[in-house]
Amino acid sequence: MTDGVQALDRWMDDLLRNGLANLENVGSAPWSRRARRLVDAQVPGLARWLGSLAGIPGSGADWPEVLLDELGRMALLTEAFHRLDDLPPPLQDEVLRRLGWSLRKEEVLERGERVRDRWVVLGRAEEEDELLRTRRDWLAGLDGGRIALLLQFAHGSRRFETRLDPGTTLEGELCFWPGSNPQRVLVVEGRGSEVTVDRLPGSEDVDAFLDRVSAEVARDPWARRFGGALRQVVPVLGEDGWWLRDRRGLGLPFQSDHCWNLLAISGGHPVDVAVEWDHRFLAPLAVVADGVFQELC
Amino acid sequence: MDPFARAALVGTGRHPDVPTPGLEALAEGLEGRTPERRLLLAAGARAVARAAGRTAGAVAPGPDAADPDTRPACTPGAARLLRRLFTGRQAELLPEALSRLAAAGLRLPHALLPMALGADPQVREAVREVLGTRGVWLARQGPSWEWAVAPTEAEPPPDEPSLEAKLDHPAQRIRVAASRQLARMADSRLARQMARRATSLLTSRMEVRLPSELDDAWRRDLGADHAPEAVGRKAGWLLRTVALVPPSHWEDRFGRQPWRLVADIASDEVVLAEALTRATLLHDARSWAGPLWDWWQTRVREPPGQSAVVDEMRAALLARMPREEAERRVARLLEGAGDAALEALLEALPVPWSAGFSRQYLAALHQHVEALGPEATGFSLPWQRSVAIAGRALSPAVLPEAAAPLPLARSRTLRIRQWRARLDAFAETTRVRQHLVEEIPL
């Protein structure tokens, strides 16, 4: 593992010494070659991260900045790994998890925090490549206000192990992965209700949502996906794209294949929107308008 | 571009002095590291700081919110069905689904509006009826949805002088269109003059007297001079002239009813029959549609290579008859191997068919399929093609009957396999339509 991380450090140093400009015309081959070496060196988490950067060069006017942000954060991670023993144990968990050190279910159940609540399934994001499908279901505790992520993978056409229906409530116990900023969960036990919610528990305005993001980044500087719900926001199409605007007139930009659907459903009226934030854009996942929950798909 | 990104782009090999604006405290901790590593770690720290310090921007409000809809949305089941039709599967059923929605006093659910506004231009009129308040509100903001916002302005009826002027237009298409419009104005100069000219071409026994030459004024009023293919030059003048005159002119002139006049047309006077048929279509002379259809069906002595005209005339006339009359005429063709134009004629019938005609069709189809046998002897392409039309056109009342399996042979010959594919598609179409009927009750 250490060898693989050190080799990645040297590779990143070379990139920076020669300049990122060279990357614009080389395609994805260098990235996937380096990612394969990381897999061989037992750091699959870093391999996936690195592989996902291949599309950035040349992808927009600001690509050098976007790529430098990513590489910089990756360097912070390898730096943290080299000084792992100096870090508090919960942060060590985050670092190791990001490198690709996976915990077995029994370990999660043994070490993770268990939280009982009525969990609303806010919405779902899915991604797919030729081999693997990734599903992220975001949940919010009605009583405790915690946000939880059920992250699942399925190969090919296989089913996901745990099935939750967005818009419904799961009454039961979740177990959080151990770490300094627990997001990911296992469902320990729970009983789903068939009834869909008529409002989403979430942040009353965009500032409150960003405060939560700040707190999470402080606990885990590599956190990059933040689920949740924005209450009573209006989708607005501006000159510079789509925005969700809260009742104080502040907002964040959003991107989706379903922007017009969200606008159609809201009709310019405030709606509750389940979102996922990635530091750049919100992705709307579901909406409650007139007390009716609808997934955006 | 910010200084970090510029340094990274060029490379620390050329620019070893990494700027660290705002990150001086951090830079101290990085003393002794390589320039590359210093740049990376500083960039990483800045990325994290930006992510944590992100603030919301002021956003200008959007347009006024939509007024409430007055009509209720359809059921979720109907919404799923419509989504499927909008995404192109069985899209041919979209017009029926949309008009059913409108007839039931319902509107599209809001989530389907972007898809509906982006639908094919052919279904726009049907979509417009079920957009509701929200749909129009959305269309006003959309990229290319003006068609749904602007009320369809009825074009002002053209006035005679402007149409007269168009008779001198260089484009024949414009001239012919103007000539037809003027012919439909009951007391226009062209209509009056054309009736007078036509009178000189026909005797009261419906015998044709071809003109020897046209004067310039006549030629101008026709809008076009050259004859259609396969018709002589003079016959072309007759065709164009009589086609412009309302058929009622002949009733008045000769004092006889349409069926009597049509009965007098000789079986080889195809040009005259075509001219009267075109006049019937142009002037919507419904009382002529039946007699002319019967002439084309039973009297015509088809000139070689002209069957297309016969089929075209029959299909066009069907669409001008009352439904029962049209269906009665096509029902006679359902027996036997099938008229070569069965497909075109069925297509010309008003949709949906009556329950009675639908049952006649299903019974005839059953018989035809049964008679095919394992080798598909008596194979008829018009019959095979007709099932696609029937799937869309059958009366909603007979859809459950249409689901009954047909006695198709089990052999694997090519023709039987083709039949099976057609019948499977037919079954799927009628199943979806039955589903529509259930989800959108009237």
Task: Please give a structural write-up.
- The complex is a heterodimer of chains A (297) and B (442).
- In chain A, 33% of the residues lie in helices and 31% in strands.
- In chain A, the strands form two sheets. Chain A has a six-stranded antiparallel β-sheet. In chain A, strands 3-2-1-4-5 form a five-stranded antiparallel β-sheet.
- In chain A, strand 1 and strand 2 (132-141) form a beta hairpin.
- In chain A, 41% of the residues are buried.
- Chain A is built from eight helices and eleven strands.
- In chain A, helix 1 (2-18) runs antiparallel to helix 2, helix 1 (2-18) packs antiparallel against helix 4 (63-82) and helix 2 (29-40) runs antiparallel to helix 3 (44-52).
- Chain B has helices spanning 3-10, 24-29, 35-52, 76-86, 94-103, 113-117, 124-128, 132-141, 146-149, 160-166, 172-184, 189-199, 216-222, 233-244, 248-254, 258-263, 270-283, 286-299, 307-318, 323-331, 342-348, 355-372, 381-393, 399-402, 414-439; one strand at 57-58.
- The radius of gyration of chain B is 34 Å and the shape is elongated.
- The model of chain B has no long low-confidence stretch (mean pLDDT 89).
- Chain B has 442 residues and is mostly helical.
- Chain B is built from 25 helices and one strand.
- At the A-B interface, helix 1, helix 4, helix 7, strand 6 and strand 8 of A face helix 1, helix 3, strand 1 and helix 8 of B.
- Strand 8 (250-254) of chain A pairs antiparallel with strand 1 (57-58) of chain B.
